[in-house]
UniProtKB/TrEMBL annotation:
Species: Ceratopteris richardii
UniProt-recorded name of the protein: BURP domain-containing protein
Record-annotated membrane-spanning stretches: none
Residue ranges occupied by any BURP domain in the UniProt entry: 14-240
InterPro entries in UniProt: BURP, BURP_dom
Pfam families noted in UniProt: BURP (PF03181)
Coiled coil (UniProt feature): none
Amino acid sequence: MAALERNFMDVAELSRSRRVEPSKYYVIYSEIPEVPVRSFLPAELAEVIPLTNKSLSEIFKLHPSSLFAKNSMKTLQICNERVHKDGTTVMDGEAAVCTTSLEGLQTVLKSPLLLGPHNAANIRAVVTDPRLQCCSDFTGKIVEVRLEADEQQRHAICHSLMYPSAVYLCHFVPQGRLYSVTLKPSNADDEELVQAVGICHMDTRGWDPLHLAFLNVHTTPGHGEACHWLLKGSIAFVNNDAYQK
């Protein structure tokens, strides 16, 4: 939780770096706990194994008191309560879906629910360099900031959730800006550049006042943007079609 909180950025600093000052140092904190590597279920199994407490105990054999089981139950809460069956959520304009198979993920990305009308061949994935996603904190100086998608260009973010098999929450949140940031490690012995991906939510009206973004940058809903890095287990998808809604 602390790592997530510290990884929220100030969009003013990011935008300023993009325009004239590609020199600010950023610290990207490693996420804890480490997310285990898991595979998607085959489509035929994913269709018959629901995201339920019963599946956790009877199929995956998780003990209810284990930390893994408790974290998995949070995933059930997200997928069964936050995400509605019609793809809406409590957040105005957000579209979301949980997927438990590779085929399901492909179906979601091909549909207009998250990315709007598009040709599936024109979807582009943007991810953070794996070297920034594991094990230790990273400090680097910004070399370049690239705007990958603005508020008018549909893009979706898929987050890996804790569960015995791979589960992804994919969602589209209106009024977002997607950035890729090239950084030079502060370690003088390491000359290799790395890329981090950040998302800025430009309209925070209707957000929970206790959201980590507001606690970190000392603002309130509707009075500031919420930006954060997309680290381990997160993938951004951009609709590159000329017609975007």
